[in-house]
Every structure is written in structure tokens, then in C-alpha cells.
Amino acid sequence: MLSESAYNATDRATRVAQEFLTGVFVNGLLDEYIKRRLLEENPPTLNEALELAMMLQNSSRTVEFSNHQFTQYQPPQPQYQPHVQ
After folding, report:
1. Structural domain boundaries of the chain?
2. Which residues have CB under 8 Å from 53's CB, separation 6+?
3. From CA 25, how far away is CA 2, in angstroms rounded?
4. For residue 50, what are the contacts with CB-CB under 8 A and spacing of at least 6?
5. What does the pLDDT look like over 20-48, one tens digit per residue?
6. Which of 19, 47, 55, 77 ranks highest by number of CB atoms within 10 Å?
7. What backbone phi and psi angles, to 5 degrees, belong to 82?
8. Which residues contact 22 (CB under 8 A, 6 or more apart)?
């Protein structure tokens, strides 16, 4: 019974520490979109919060890169050369 009580106390302390560390991490984020998504998902551990943040950041960069490629591309314009006789 005593060992079970000690295990529960350790487990509870670990959960509290993870919640604290996750909260510090999320509050320190500068990207508001990622911060909001993490608050919505509420990952239980710091590791899960880091994984989700990295996934969101990578997907955001992929979309930005893709958009940048398409918005920057301008098809070649035909060159007008007057016909001189």
C-alpha cells in the first residue's frame, strides 16, 4: 500500500512538472498560430508539444514555400520588336 501511494505521488508530480514545462514552452512561443493550436490541442507532455509545434512549423513553411513559388513566377513576356525596313 505504501509503495502504491509513493508511485501515485511520483506519477502526479511528473504530470504536474510536464504540465508546467509545457505551459512555459507554449507561453514562450512567438508564432501566434502555433501557440493557439497547442492551446487547443493541449498536449499532455513537453515532448508531445514540441513534436506538434515542429509539425505545424514545417507544414507552415511548406505552404509558404509553395505559395512563394507560384506568386513569384511570372511567365516570359513576348518581346516586341518593331519591324524596320
Report:
1. 2-57
2. 25, 29, 34, 38
3. 35
4. 25
5. 999 999 999 999 999 999 999 999 999 99
6. 19
7. -65, 145
8. 43, 44, 45, 46, 49
pTM for this entry: 0.63
The C-alpha torsion from 8 through 13 and 37 to 61, rounded to 10°, is: -110
Q: How many residues does the chain have?
A: 85
Give the tens place of pLDDT for each residue, 42-74: 999 999 999 999 999 998 877 666 665 555 555
Q: Which residues contact 41 (CB under 8 A, 6 or more apart)?
A: 52
Alpha helices, H only, 1-85: 2-27, 32-41, 46-72
